[in-house]
C-alpha cells in the first residue's frame, strides 16, 4: 500500500480530520507482522541518507506535529535510529524564550533549517505559532492569520533556494487514545515527573485544536512541502507509515554517490606502497 | 572487567601509547560473545539518560578523538542509538571556516557545550587544535603550546559551573589496522567518494601524530575530565568498552527522577473525570 499517496493532504483542499480513522493500521494486523516491512524501510533510509550526505545536493526537512501524547518523541527516535547521526539534527521547539518572543516567529526556526546533504527533524515547529498560539489566543487574529502565508513563502524559499525536500507529518490520535496514554504515564514512574494538570485541562480545547490542525493542513500542504496525516493510535503503524514515506521520498530524489575525487588506481598504488613500507619496517 | 579503571589515563603522568595494545579485546573472544554485555550497557544508558534529561542537574560531554579510520563515526552512531535523540546533540568539527579562524580556537566549540539535562557528543573537538594543527605546524609553537592549559581551564569551568561530566575517548588503532580499513574503503562503492590521497600521505606523519596524542593524553587528563585510551582494532570491543564506561559514569552520578510537580492523586481524579466525560459524550 502506498502510504504516501494515501495520507498526503491534497494541496488546496479543505481537509477534515473526520475523514481519517486514527486507528487505521493497513494490511498488517500487528507489529510482529509489520516487522519485516519496517526493517526494509529503515534499511532503505540508512542507505539513502548516506547518499544524501555524500552528494550534498539536497536537504531534507522532516516536521512532526501532533497533539500531546501523539508520539512525536517516539517517531523522532525511530526515524533517527536509521540515520547516521552526523548527518541529521533534531530540534525540539518548546515555549519560546523571552528573546525569541521579541522576534518574528520564524527567527528561531530558520537557523535549524538543514544544510544541503543533511536532514533536520523538527519535533514541533513553526506550526506551533498557528496551533497553540491560535487556540490560546496568545496573539490576536491579525497576527496569526497571515502566518499561514508566511510559512508557505518560507518553505517555498527553502525548497527552491536550497533543494530542501520538506515532509510534514501530522500524527493523529483519537481523544480516547490520548487518555489511554496519559493513564500509562500516570502508572509509569519514569514518566510521572512530566505529568501536569494541563495535560487534562488542554483536553477542554480539543475541538479548537482540531480546527487549528485542519486550518494548518488545508492551508499549508504544497507539492514541495506536503502534509501527511498519519493514523497514530498504533505506534508500530505510525513508524511503518513514516518510514515508508521517508524512504520513498529519498528514492524519488534519484540520489547518487559522487564520483571519487581522486584516481582510484593511483590510490591503489599508494595503498600497495604503504603495504610494502609496513613490511619493510616489520622486517627491519 | 572495569574498563573505566583500566583505560583511564592517570592525571599528571607521562602517557605512552606503546603501553597499550590496540588489538586488546578483553574477556570476550568476539562480537557474538560480547553481544549480551553490550546490550546490557546500552539498556543502562537508555534508562540513565532519561533520568539525566528529567533531572536537569548535570550535563554530559563525550569527546571522541582518533586518527583517520579509528572509528569515530561508528562509535558516535553506536552511543547515540541508546539515547533519546531529543536529549543529545552530535557535533562534528571539521576544518574551521574563515570566520572561525578569526576567533580563538574555543569560540566555535563553546556554543555546542551541553546544557544541563543533555548530552553532547563531539566527533573531533577542540583537541584538533593541538593535534592536526600541531603536526602540520598550522600555527607556531607559541600559539599551540598554551592551548593545553586553555583547554584544561575551559573544561574545569564547564565541570564546576554547569555540572558537566566530561568523558574523552581516544580510539586507538594500529598503523596496520588503519591500512586495512583504507583498503576496505577502496573496495566499497559507498565509501570511495571520500577517499583522498591525504589518507595515505598523512600516514607519513604517523609518529608525529603519536607524539601529539601522547602530549594531549598526558597534559589534559583530569579527574573531572579523564581521557580513556580505547583499544579499537576490534570495533565491537571499542563499542563494548565505550558503552560500559558511559553507563558506569552515568550510574555514579546518582541521578534521580524528579518528583512529580503535581499531586498524582489529584491528577488521577482528573483522569477519571475525563473518562466519565468520554463515556457521557459516547452515550449522547
TrEMBL record, chains A, B:
Pfam families: PPK2. It catalyses: [phosphate](n) + ATP = [phosphate](n+1) + ADP. InterPro entries: P-loop_NTPase, Polyphosphate_phosphotransfera, PPK2-rel_1, PPK2-related. This is Polyphosphate kinase 2 family protein. GO terms for molecular function: polyphosphate kinase activity. The keyword Cell wall biogenesis/degradation does not apply. Keywords: ATP synthesis, Kinase, Transferase. It comes from Methylocystis heyeri. Belongs to the polyphosphate kinase 2 (PPK2) family. Class I subfamily. Residues 34-256 form the Polyphosphate kinase-2-related domain. NCBIfam families: PPK2_rel_1. One of its GO terms (biological process) is polyphosphate metabolic process. The keyword Cytoplasm does not apply. The lineage of its organism: Bacteria, Pseudomonadati, Pseudomonadota, Alphaproteobacteria, Hyphomicrobiales.
Amino acid at each position: 500500500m502506498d502510504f504516501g499517496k494515501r495520507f498526503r493532504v491534497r494541496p488546496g483542499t479543505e481537509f477534515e480530520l473526520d475523514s481519517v480513522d486514527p486507528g487505521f493500521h493497513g494490511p498488517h494486523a500487528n507489529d510482529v507482522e509489520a516487522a519485516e516491512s519496517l526493517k526494509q524501510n529503515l534499511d532503505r533510509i540508512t542507505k539513502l541518507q548516506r547518499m544524501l550526505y555524500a552528494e550534498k545536493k539536497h536537504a531534507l526537512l522532516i516536521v512532526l506535529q501532533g497533539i500531546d501524547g501523539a508520539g512525536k518523541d517516539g517517531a523522532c527516535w525511530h526515524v533517527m535510529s536509521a540515520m547516521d547521526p552526523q548527518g541529521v539534527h533534531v530540534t525540539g521547539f518548546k515555549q519560546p524564550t523571552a528573546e525569541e518572543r521579541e522576534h518574528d516567529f520564524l527567527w528561531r526556526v530558520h537557523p535549524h533549517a538543514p544544510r544541503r546533504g543533511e536532514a533536520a527533524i523538527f519535533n514541533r515547529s513553526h506550526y506551533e505559532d498557528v496551533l497553540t498560539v491560535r487556540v490560546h489566543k496568545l496573539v490576536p487574529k491579525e497576527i496569526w492569520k497571515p502566518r499561514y502565508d508566511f510559512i508557505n513563502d518560507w518553505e517555498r524559499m527553502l525548497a527552491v533556494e536550497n533543494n530542501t525536500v520538506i515532509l510534514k507529518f501530522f500524527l493523529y490520535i483519537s481523544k480516547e487514545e490520548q487518555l489511554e496514554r496519559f493513564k500509562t504515564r500516570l502508572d509509569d514512574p519514569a514518566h510521572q515527573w512530566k505529568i501536569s494538570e494541563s495535560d487534562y485541562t488542554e483536553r477542554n480545547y480539543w475541538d479548537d485544536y482540531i480546527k487549528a490542525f485542519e486550518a494548518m493542513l488545508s492551508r499549508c500542504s504544497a507539492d514541495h512541502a506536503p502534509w501527511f496525516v498519519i493514523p497514530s493510535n498504533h505506534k508500530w503503524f505510525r513508524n511503518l507509515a513514516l518510514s515508508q514515506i521517508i524512504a520513498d521520498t529519498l528514492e524519488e530524489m534519484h540520489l547518487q554517490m559522487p564520483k571519487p575525487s581522486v584516481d582510484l588506481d593511483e590510490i591503489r598504488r599508494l595503498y600497495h606502497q604503504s603495504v610494502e613500507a609496513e613490511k619493510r619496517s616489520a622486517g627491519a
